[in-house]
Amino acid sequence: MGGALSYSFKASSFGAPWAFELVPEGLKWSAGLRSGLLGYGKINRVRLSYRPVTMQSHRFLAEIWSDEMPKIQIASTSWRGIVEQTRQDDAYTAFIVELHRRLAAAGTRARFSAGIPSIKYWIGLAMFVGIMFGLVLVSARALWSGQWAGAAVLAGFLVLFGWHLGAFFRRNRPEVYPPEALPVLVLPRR
C-alpha cells in the first residue's frame, strides 16, 4: 500500500495542531494529547467541500466519518498567527488524493460525496438567486430615478456578492463520486 505520507494544520490560532499520517494500517492522527489510528476499512463516509471563511477565502475541507470516533476535519489552510492563515494547497491535495487511493486499494465501502448537503445547497441557491434578482431590481430602480451614486454602489455590491457566493455554489454542488475520480472543484488547484 505504500509508505507513510503526512499532513498537518492548525484549526485555530490558539489550539494544538492536527497531524495526520497515512500509514499501511490506516489514518493515524493526533491533536494535542489525543491521538488514534483509524483503519481504512473503518471509514464509512468522506465529504470534500469548498469552505471559505472570513480570513481565508480559498479554503477546502475534507470530512471523514467513522462509527468508532467523531467526525475528523482536515482543512487546506492553517492558522499562522492570531489573524493570519496560510494556504497549503499542494500538501493538502497530495494528502487527500493519496487517502482516496488508499481507501480504494483497501476495498472500502465508504460513501464519497462532494459539496454541501443537498437540502442546504438548494435552499441556499434559491435564496442567492432571489437576493441577486432583488439587487438587480433595486439597481434598475435607482438608475430609473436618477440616483447614479446609489446605483453604482448597488452594482458594485452585486458584482462582489455574485462573484463570491457564485463561486461557493459552483464549487459546492452536491454529488457522489468514486474514490478514483475526485471532483476537481472541491480541491485546490495545483
Spatial separation of the terminal alpha carbons: 24 Å
Number of strands: 11
CATH superfamily of the largest domain: Pleckstrin-homology domain (PH domain)/Phosphotyrosine-binding domain (PTB)
Q: Which CATH C-level class of the largest domain is it? A: Mainly Beta
Q: What composes the largest sheet?
A: 5 strands, mixed
The domain count comes to 2
Fill in the CATH topology of the largest domain: PH-domain like
Sheet with the most strands: spatial strand order: 7-6-5-10-11
Strand content: 25-35%
Poorly predicted segments: none
Helix content: 25-40%
Write up what this structure looks like.
The protein has 190 residues and is α+β, with helices and mostly antiparallel strands. The chain has 2 domains: 5-116 and 175-186, PH-domain like (Roll); 118-168. It contains 3 helices and 11 strands, in the order E-E-E-E-E-E-E-E-E-H-E-H-H-E. The longest helix has 27 residues, at 118-144. The model has no long low-confidence stretch (mean pLDDT 90).
